[in-house]
């Protein structure tokens, strides 16, 4: 096969809800580049699971090809799988990102005891060569500073990957999206565009982060007592605006919550968050300062039950509490699934009687993702021949695909992928590639495991219906039942009562009956134990706990 | 105590999230009246629980006083506890409500096998006397037809209870809120107003249900294939508008989903839903009719996984499926906590590629609860001397309390209650009453039980971490271990592996060691078994499954 016919493969890995969000592999011949290595958080469909990682088996199988890992920005869903991946790789692979992102990642490496990672700082305009790939980074704006899009050139064609972005024309740090670069790449020819679909169903233009400043300043200026602001700890620009507003009115800033302490420290060390040492005070010193001179910057904007805000709202924080005269600003929007937790904190705060500002009361939050007009602008500037919406659930990918068609990409050139799908590009033409082992793996009890539906189903059943353990000792010689013990946990009170009064006897009589026959096997006895209890419980209490029968011969 | 000093007690019962929502007792001397008898649905904080009922112990303890039960409208959170309550009462107590509400309730009675309930139909303006209570019903508008507010007069003073309401000036059935009655009672003197707080944080005026009709008609008229509309089955006016729009463009209506079938049948029988027999077809006959002549009315607007819409979206419905050329209208807004389920159905539909209309794409839903301007209007017309916001979480009660103060009720006359609180009125003056046993009880496996935190905690632990049962047989005489069996369910793979390789031996050696001492008790052996396994698992896998040790002597 002549070299020019080698295909560039574009392989999204992971993506429980959002293709091309957590990790994407780009492979050309003997070279592979990974873009992002993020994780997901479990919900009620994954009981007991700690974290969810992309299944990067494909990367490990092709480890010898891996030339580098590019991290577009510092959010967990783009960085969180890195420590696991690095631990699984047998050699050091260079990691390219901005100073801030690398600073945030370093914290994770320290936690996971990963020594001397091969990190490489890049900035707007940096071009690197990784095997057959020439990659140029360009500045983008997002809800964390120092985010990048990338433009990648290979013998098979070119790809632009936006990373997570919005077009913020007035970013807090003055680092605008590099429209010039995007247009230049667009003019030079973008064969395939991968673009962020998170807000593809939202009309209009996402407001600038600067829009939040006015209301934050207004609320902080007019508050009577202490002001508590809950925000994402990685949203350094938001934190900067809160700090600026506080200092402007002569308030000191107290930082609380583990990730808030870490991220503000890293961001200040690296020069991304600017506030004088004098203007920050320790939570333990806060009582020395009048209430009207204090702003508390805290975690908990998603209602996390163990966060600083939740603990302060319920009086369980070790050094701070919230009073009626105070003001609380919840400077974020609930991520889907967190609505009830956030509501529950707002209820606690309502009982305290403090002032509460959330998104419904003013512009105390704006999204970090591009809305429809920005997405169209991106399509207009990049002018891609082929388009693959990424980073969104099925609804958002489809909405973004429709925008692509509106912007003139032929419908047959728009690819909405599902888990396991891939694309390939040959001579600047893109088509669907072969299926790749994809999906996700779980971090469960400290170890990474394949998703095991039996375990999850068992946990759901245990959690809903409880468990009964029925232990029976039978005598090998006498053919008789020597002992029976039946115990339940998590049962409804009717099942618990029934078990106490009739459980043991039901098991004993069933086993005795079975043994009176032609010497029933242990398996048959076990089935008998399970059936006797499950019939008893279903008939009399209409419950179906999990039953674990144990039959032991002595 | 002279009769005029007898207190009218106002006792909210239940109210997991929404004081005075599910059931409120009004007691004056030897007479008691109950307003509503509803239930709540459990969430992840109540694993395995079927339903949540108000704890109506107080009602049962005072059963001889109970003169009647008033049901304001037919929603589950106001009617669902009735069958349980009636079963617990030793005599028949009359139930007052509208024809529709009684019709809906009758279905529940049939399910629960409750014979000959003493139901009494009332209508706008009906006045009844129940002991010392004179009660007048007045029409209100809500997201179910035939809702009432009530005005209650007692020797201690008067109370107005709005029920759930919005001020719909153009209701689909022409039955407007009875402003005249509200103003008349206001003029005659309302000592205490209890008013619906659900939307107390929402500015403005909730749009009329009629506002939904235009967009529904537009979408149904312009759809190419079948149209599927998911709505609350009790929202008869919504169903009426969907039926009208369908018939107007020559489409037949197919009804699917259990509660949708029941409610449309009841509503048609009672004259609340009007559609000709000819215009309704059975789901099994739908294939005889061209797609563009069909509208499917279905359950599942909240993303319920077993609903008709969910089954049709995933291809699991027995007679209907959704195709790319079809249109789906989700004619509701997710109730907090259901956002992810609804999103998940929208994702399935996006994969099918059909047209999807939800609230973001047009007015296909409006709330059934009054917004701030309506709540102020209610306060302006009722002119209460005292005010108790009801039916809302802490945030909404507080917001409504603030509206009350804005409208001129003195802050000291506004009462925001918590679970267990009560009010009492003596000679037209309202103050806080004594605490009442309140709270909720659970329906768990068919029986009603006290909330048992141990059971719920056990279920949460079982569901998150799994369970290990460790059975040990020891010989009484020999002082030796005769048999050990260790089994796990729902464990992480590392814990499962460890258990298989080392579990049995860890238990055996620990028990042997303990028995080598001065004949350890069964309790001590049990503790030993638990500790040996929990240490082993924690040290090597950092997991903490529930451990059930069983020690049997033979």
Q: Which quaternary structure do these chains form?
A: homodimer
Total beta strands of chain A = 26
Write the CATH fold name of the largest domain in chain A: Metallo-beta-lactamase, Chain A
- Helix residue percentage of chain A: 25-40%
Strand order of the largest sheet of chain A: 7-6-5-3-2-1-20-21
Query: What is the global morphology of chain A?
Result: globular
Helix and strand content put the structural class of chain A at alpha/beta
Largest beta-sheet characterization of chain A: 8 strands, mixed
Beta-strand share of residues of chain A: 15-25%
User: What is the annotated CATH architecture of the largest domain in chain A?
Assistant: 4-Layer Sandwich
Overall pLDDT score of chain A: 94
Query: Greatest chain-chain interface?
Result: A-B, 67 and 68 residues
Please state the CA-atom Rg of chain A, rounded to the nearest Å.
29 Å
CATH superfamily of the largest domain in chain A: Ribonuclease Z/Hydroxyacylglutathione hydrolase-like
Show unreliable segments of chain A.
none
What is this structure's SSE topology?
The structure is a homodimer of 554-residue chains.
Chain A: E1 8-13, E2 23-28, E3 31-35, E4 51-54, H1 57-61, E5 66-70, H2 76-79, H3 82-88, E6 95-97, H4 99-111, E7 119-121, E8 127-130, E9 133-140, E10 147-154, E11 157-161, H5 179-188, E12 192-196, H6 210-222, E13 227-230, H7 236-248, E14 252-256, H8 258-269, E15 280-281, E16 294-298, H9 308-313, E17 327-330, H10 339-352, E18 355-357, H11 372-382, E19 386-390, H12 394-406, E20 423-426, E21 429-432, E22 440-444, E23 447-450, H13 453-465, E24 467-474, E25 481-489, H14 493-516, H15 522-541, E26 546-553
Binding site for substrate (chains A, B): 365-369
Subunit structure (chains A, B): Homodimer, may be a subunit of the RNA degradosome.
Protein name (chains A, B): Ribonuclease J
